[in-house]
Amino acid sequence: MWGIRYTVRDLDGRVLREFDLLDGKSSVWNWARDYIWAGSRLLAIEDASGRQHIHPDHLGSTRLVTDASGNRVSYHEFDPLGMEITPPYQDDVRMKFTGHERDSLADQNTFYDVDYMHARDYSHYFGRFLSLDPAPADPSNPQSWHPYAYVLNNPTLFVDPTGMSIDLSLLTSSELGALMQGLEDFTGNKYGVDERGMLILLSANADASETATNFLDELIASDRVYAVESRDRFFKFRGARDKLETAECSNIILDFSDQAFSKKVDMRTFNIGSSLVHELAHTAMGLEDPPDSTPTALGPVVNFVNTIRRERGFPERARYFARNITRKSDIQNRIVRSKLKFRMPGGRIRNVTLVNFR
Ligand SMILES: [Zn+2]
Predict the structure, then answer these.
(1) Same domain, 186 and 225
(2) How far is the CA of 138 from the centre of ligand 1 (A)?
(3) Looking at the structure, do residues 118 and 196 belong to the same domain, yes or no?
(4) Of the candidates 139, 159, 179, which is a domain's last residue?
(5) How far is the CA of 326 from the centre of ligand 1 (A)?
(6) Exposed end of the chain (fewer CB within 10 Å): N or C?
(7) Which 3 state secondary structure label does DSSP give 86?
(8) Highest mean pLDDT among 12-16, 18-22, 161-165
(9) Domain check: are 143 and 204 in the same one?
(10) What is the C-alpha to C-alpha distance for residues 101 and 132, in angstroms, rounded to an integer?
(11) DSSP string, 325-346
(12) What is the domain extent for residue 155?
């Protein structure tokens, strides 16, 4: 709870220490917290409950907060103008978008809250500064004539300078290897990652699926960041295996222990690469799977992924059962078998047994 807050800042205006006057009248300043910086990068916050480590992205936005033992406290994603996409009230860290102080932690993502950017207050709700730019405009750059505009109205240049936005940097190297192989088998193209762990197209092949190529090209070039995590790592962070179903999270979570286990069907049709495309279709297009009560319906996502299978000449998925793969009661079992139905190119239906190793 905040009463009156006093801050001690360095010569560049960065907060070094905070004191509270909880009743607003007391003359006793209570130490609230210290901020540890490396230049303009916030590294850690220390208060009475201990130390929290801040993991900023290349813009300085706080993306991940971990506690002293390395457990995840919160994870943040922001839209290009600074509205938080992930749930905004996960922690009490004030340094949010580009590492600037969010003024009211109670009113984030509304027009009541602003980011204090030293010279001016910035509204992440409007994507505009609230006062005139104190620096003169550059006559040769019309975007700079607008005195309230944020970063010359081109926030994505700064959010996403290389235009690559499927973030695979949270995966281990063996998960990454499996995913790149799976994507190549499924789509027909060779994909890789750049030095920041972002997905890139390495080579487009003639026999690749056009639908998959266009879809992934578009997401790679989009302003939005799609962060991919492994299910095991996600559970480790959350500390409980059964929280997946209830967690609010815009990340793509893949189960790397899934393995299609049948010689009856082309193994390229259902692998970790097709799982990524399936989950990306949910997130990027906002599409839902059909409810389990209508087991014969495929739903728009499976239909979309089937289009790619058709272009590749692979068996298509003939049934969709979400329950078959993520049943809660399965989680304790070491080996889980699920039956998936695929329609072969000739029209015959084949059952495929999917085995999850745990
Ligand atoms: Zn789905």
Answers:
(1) yes
(2) 49
(3) no
(4) 159
(5) 11
(6) N
(7) coil
(8) 12-16
(9) no
(10) 20
(11) HH-GGGTTSSEEEEEEEEE-TT
(12) 4-159
17-76 pLDDT, tens digit per residue, is 988 876 656 677 788 899 998 877 788 999 988 999 998 877 778 888 988 888 888 888
> In terms of DSSP H, where are the helices of the chain?
155-159, 173-187, 210-221, 231-238, 272-285, 299-312, 322-326
Give 195 Cα–ligand 1 centroid separation in angstroms.
Answer: 30
The rounded Å distance from CA 261 to ligand 1 centre is 20
**What is the tally of structural domains in the chain?**
2
How close is the Cα of 289 to the center of ligand 1, in Å?
Answer: 5
Let me know the angle formed at the C-alpha of 335 by 329 and 339, rounded to the nearest 5 degrees.
Answer: 80
Helices 299-312 and 272-285: angle between axes, nearest 10 degrees: 130
Q: Residue 51 C-alpha to ligand 1 middle, in angstroms?
A: 38
- Please indicate, yes or no, whether residues 104 and 134 belong to a single structural domain of this protein: yes
This model's pTM is above 0.85: no
Structure tokens at 340: 């998936």
Spacing, Cα 274 to ligand 1 middle (Å): 11
Q: Which of 107, 134, 159 is the last residue of a domain?
A: 159
